[in-house]
Backbone:
């Protein structure tokens, strides 16, 4: 199990914050336990990788609000136990924060999660939290980030500042883990550009506002890049490994959405300077929903997005010239059924990715999701080549309490 | 966690629908059926003005044709916008089903234009601006459509008074104005609605909804009226029956509070994350 020091720190913090609260606390406990089964279509090309895997995850949230909901504490630990992969068996404090709102100001201190951005396929401008990559390769699962946050809502918009005193390393699957790179990532050899390593104090600023149909965000980030360079190396036994190297980066980003009737228009992009080089990345597209098709309560949504990197095809970014197309079907029934099917095409290498997610509720407290990810036609030169033998189906059954 | 999409217009205000004075003062109405229908709606609206802001909890029981039920719970906050050209602002936070716990929906209502609407997805901490043209879609799988919740601003409809008759049960000893109202906003799922408004307090008792083929689709009964702050009537029990599918939804309100000091800050996209 990893990140135990984070858990201990957060628990101590939670105890402190609880003691600091003036009123007797009314603590609300919610959470889920979620067993998971994974089946891989092909045998792995690394010894020790199996065709099937089982694991169980749990997340519990302890919440308390007082002072007319102007002060609150949230503590939300997460853990997964995985049958095959020691790296995927991990615990993380997703949140452990004290927050306070005073008029149009809000302050938060502790571990928290922050999302920036508008697009669906990739999340380019989302930079505050590190990806919990063993949870999902889509980058949507995040590790808790220690921070001090100050936000104010003014006539000119919402301005938020973040002080990020401790850096979280990305999680990577172990030798037996799947889906995984064919050459494992060795995070015992992690390298940093900054001498302060993970204690480098990072800083971010965000402005956001709504102008009629436009929702606009502008962000600035300075500090340890969440996205590591993976350098070839050797482990103690002389086996090839990938060594994560975290550089210092400065980044200016923007995200814009226009909402017009059933149409959504989205754009995200950033300029970044790192290791004396500058580059741009951008993504954008449309989302359109057909409401009440064939006189039924069903909706069908269409998402089309494009991703671009001015460096062209490069080993650091698998999405340098890629198109995404997805279809979402929601019958709007009592079970909240939803089906999302998507495809990714790399326009440089013609590599293809397919994904399908289907989910619904059973009874009041069970939520079942079935997910399939398939890779096809991935050439050796594509950064995703490692995944080409890792197509899989995944079933999760969550019991909420 | 995958992102679950829920969109549409949920102005839980129920605002202009519900209000009434203490005494049944006579209301003078014009003779022309269209002017009379509108005057009835204006009187209902007038009696709910000035509530400022409110908080309440909602409980929904969905029942299908086989008698199977499921439950929804949410908390609702409303900020009254005194300007008649502006719709009220509402914030709804879901408690149940538990898999959507903490999901929040913020609506800045407009009169005839689509509302501005944002959804907060707590699993990914994401605030999403969503399309609000889905007026006729079911709310949380219930028999209530999004448009059934949106605040009944007067100019959203055209009106025609039809007749006066005995109110529906349980107030059959009273007289009701029966008015036809025609949605003027785009994307409505209804050709028309027929509303029974109690002549003693100008509160709605029953609404019939006619679908795009002009056939009776649903019937809403509003009962268990309570007077709040000595001025504002709220129906605490709303029962929607779908006469086509046999499904029904009972919606009950509780813990109404008025003048709780909510401000525009509590209805910003920032506030979505702390709404409790």
Residues:
């Amino acid at each position: 199990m990893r990140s135990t020091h984070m858990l201990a720190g957060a628990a101590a913090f939670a105890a402190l914050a609880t003691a600091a609260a003036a009123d007797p606390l009314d603590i609300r406990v919610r959470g889920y336990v979620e067993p998971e089964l994974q089946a891989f279509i092909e045998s792995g090309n690394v010894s020790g990788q199996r065709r099937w895997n089982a694991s169980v995850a749990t997340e519990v949230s302890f919440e308390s609000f007082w002072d007319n909901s102007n002060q609150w504490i949230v503590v939300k630990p997460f853990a997964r136990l995985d049958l095959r992969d020691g790296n995927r068996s991990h615990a993380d404090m997703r949140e452990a924060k004290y927050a306070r709102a005073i008029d149009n100001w809000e302050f938060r201190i502790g571990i928290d999660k922050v999302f920036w951005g508008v697009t669906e396929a990739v999340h380019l401008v989302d930079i505050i939290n590190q990806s919990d990559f063993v949870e999902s390769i889509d980058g949507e699962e995040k590790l808790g980030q220690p921070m001090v946050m100050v936000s104010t809502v003014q006539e000119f918009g919402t301005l938020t500042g973040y002080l990020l005193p401790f850096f979280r390393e990305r999680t990577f699957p172990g030798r037996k883990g799947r889906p995984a790179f064919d050459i494992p990532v060795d995070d015992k050899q992690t390298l940093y550009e900054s001498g302060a390593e993970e204690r480098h104090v990072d800083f971010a600023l965000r402005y956001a506002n709504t102008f009629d149909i436009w929702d606009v965000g502008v962000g600035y980030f300075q500090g340890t890049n969440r996205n590591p360079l993976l350098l070839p190396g050797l482990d103690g036994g002389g086996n090839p490994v990938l060594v994560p190297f975290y550089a210092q980066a400065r980044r200016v980003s923007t995200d814009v959405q226009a909402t017009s009737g059933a149409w959504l228009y989205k754009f995200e992009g950033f300029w970044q300077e790192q290791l004396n080089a500058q580059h741009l990345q951008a993504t954008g597209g449309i989302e359109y929903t057909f409401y009440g098709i064939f006189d039924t309560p069903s909706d069908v949504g269409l998402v089309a997005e494009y991703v671009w990197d001015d460096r062209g095809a490069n080993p650091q970014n698998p999405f340098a010239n890629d198109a995404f197309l997805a279809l979402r079907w929601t019958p709007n029934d009592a079970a909240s059924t939803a089906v999302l099917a998507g495809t990714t095409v790399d326009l440089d290498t013609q590599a293809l990715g397919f994904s399908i997610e289907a989910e619904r509720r059973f009874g009041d407290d069970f939520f079942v999701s079935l997910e399939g990810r398939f890779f096809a036609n991935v050439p050796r030169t594509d950064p995703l080549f490692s995944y080409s033998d890792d197509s899989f189906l995944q079933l999760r059954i969550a019991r909420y309490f | 966690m995958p992102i679950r999409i829920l969109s549409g217009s949920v102005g839980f205000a129920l605002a202009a629908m519900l209000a009434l004075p203490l005494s049944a003062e006579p209301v003078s109405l014009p003779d022309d059926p269209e002017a009379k229908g509108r005057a009835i709606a204006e009187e209902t609206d007038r009696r709910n003005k000035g509530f400022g802001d409110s908080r309440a909890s909602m409980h929904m029981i969905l029942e299908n044709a086989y008698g199977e039920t499921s439950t929804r719970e949410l908390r609702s906050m409303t900020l009254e916008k005194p300007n008649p050209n502006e719709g009220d602002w509402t914030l709804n936070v879901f408690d149940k089903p538990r898999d959507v716990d903490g999901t929040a929906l913020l609506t800045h209502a407009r009169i005839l234009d689509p509302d501005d609407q944002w959804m907060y997805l707590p699993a990914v901490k994401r605030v999403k601006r969503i399309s609000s043209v889905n007026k006729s879609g079911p709310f949380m799988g219930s028999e209530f459509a999004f448009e059934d919740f949106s605040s009944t601003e007067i100019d959203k409809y055209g009106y025609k008074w039809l007749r006066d008759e005995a109110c529906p049960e349980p107030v059959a000893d009273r007289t009701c104005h029966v008015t036809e109202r025609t949605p003027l906003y785009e994307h409505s799922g209804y050709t028309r609605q027929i509303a029974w408004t109690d002549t003693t307090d100008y509160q709605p008792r029953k609404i019939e909804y006619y679908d795009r083929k002009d056939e009776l689709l649903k019937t809403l009964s509003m009962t268990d009226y309570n007077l709040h702050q000595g001025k504002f009537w709220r129906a605490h029990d709303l029962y929607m029956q779908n006469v086509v599918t046999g499904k029904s939804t009972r919606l009950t309100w509780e813990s109404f509070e008025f003048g709780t000091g909510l401000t525009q800050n509590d209805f910003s996209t920032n506030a979505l994350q702390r709404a409790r």
